[in-house]
């Protein structure tokens, strides 16, 4: 068995490749950001060819830093930003449009129509999801309706579509020359098109959104050999495919029902393993596939998705110029003792869980002459913590069980001030693992299990190590008072978009 595994983590902000050894230790990594396009308010796009080029570059970069060639890799696994949709030409591999990103709200009208015609309940019962602009199906519908000739070409079988995992796997395995066109249930369960119980595309939902079946990839397991790579990873088995949030759940070793993690990246995503049965939420959470290993039955999760957390820090950096780097937000926030009375509710794409309010837009409330840019930095960080508290409360109400501690990961957990505030606001310890790159690790685990690099999930569980714990120090009365103000601020964002 070759001694190393590669994992590609294609995120909303950047693409990484990490190389791991059998102990799950990181050997090398390379990372590159890609451009974000905002053609209109509420629209967010990525260039699929740029994402592919960055992927190839980080793979080459990580191998070079590790001093390895592809022949020393046992397999490669992929974790990806979910819901984002690419539509491309089967013959040339050329995308017919930029990828429409999960944060994009252009499908609001279509979603309103679907909700009116079919009702939220039908979609939720079949897919575990509410009808919302977040998910892939309506984005694909928009592309078919708005890119000239796309629908006719799709019906003639000239086009292929997929989420980013599908796009990368097709390209890495040969593209127009024999690339495999597949996805896994953790990604497919984010489309509003998959039957959550049968793990198959649902004919009725495809018809409701007028999606031609031949466009769609085959749904395979999350851990399985799909094919082998061509190009710079020539001959390496492609063996793992997980949506990035499910990959983080896997990388955190949350293999048993009741285990959960929260990932703080562009957005924030808490997933709770609920075992072999899907739990339909009454609290605004999503029901989603956590993973499916080979021919085993799937494992499900409840998810609280928050659209904007780290993206708010990026916004302070890129749109307001308040900071030069994301890390600087902590220095700026530390210049003040508290938020100065302001709350930033970053409803840039409406509000996701637990509200699902497409009509909400961002608001900064509580402004006075006292407020300075330090307060903005602090309020931006606190917004991630408040939104997490809302999700944790919904999870507790849904399951009737409170977590003893919260496992965290993602780019923002480098932020000590945020993590300390998070522990205070939840009144529970917040725990960071030794390998904070849990998304890449989860993709490596999935690939490694498929090729026998690791034996089973029990072996993987033994690799998890605690790095740091933040314990709460805030008085409960203070915490609840702050949280009540946050809840008030959230209501100010509602009913903005007519
Ligand atoms: N030290 C930091 N403090 C606060 N936010 C940070 C920090 N470092 C990175 N971020 C934010 O985290 C996000 C990147 O995290 P990452 O997990 O790589 O995201 P993604 O997987 O969504 O691309 C960015 O939105 C960035 O603004
Ligand atoms: O790429 P991230 O880490 O922002 O994750 C994005 C999610 O997959 C969206 O559902």
TrEMBL record:
Class of the enzyme per the UniProt entry, highest EC level:
transferase
**What residues does the Carbohydrate kinase FGGY N-terminal domain cover?**
4-251
Return one Gene Ontology term, BP aspect.
Answer: glycerol-3-phosphate metabolic process
Q: Which reaction does it catalyse?
A: glycerol + ATP = sn-glycerol 3-phosphate + ADP + H(+)
| Entry EC number(s) | 2.7.1.30
PROSITE patterns for this protein: FGGY_KINASES_2
- Positions contributing to sn-glycerol 3-phosphate binding: 12, 82-83, 134, 244
Q: Pfam families attached here?
A: FGGY_C, FGGY_N
According to the record, the protein's activity is controlled as follows:
Inhibited by fructose 1,6-bisphosphate (FBP).
Protein family according to the UniProt entry: Belongs to the FGGY kinase family.
**Official protein name in the record:** Glycerol kinase
